[in-house]
Amino acid sequence: MLVANPPHHLQGDFALNSTRVAETGKSKLTFGGIGLYRPELFSSIRPGSKGQLATLLRAAMARGLVSGEVHGGVWHDVGTPARLFALNERVA
Question: Has residue 26 got a pLDDT over 90?
Answer without folding.
Answer: no
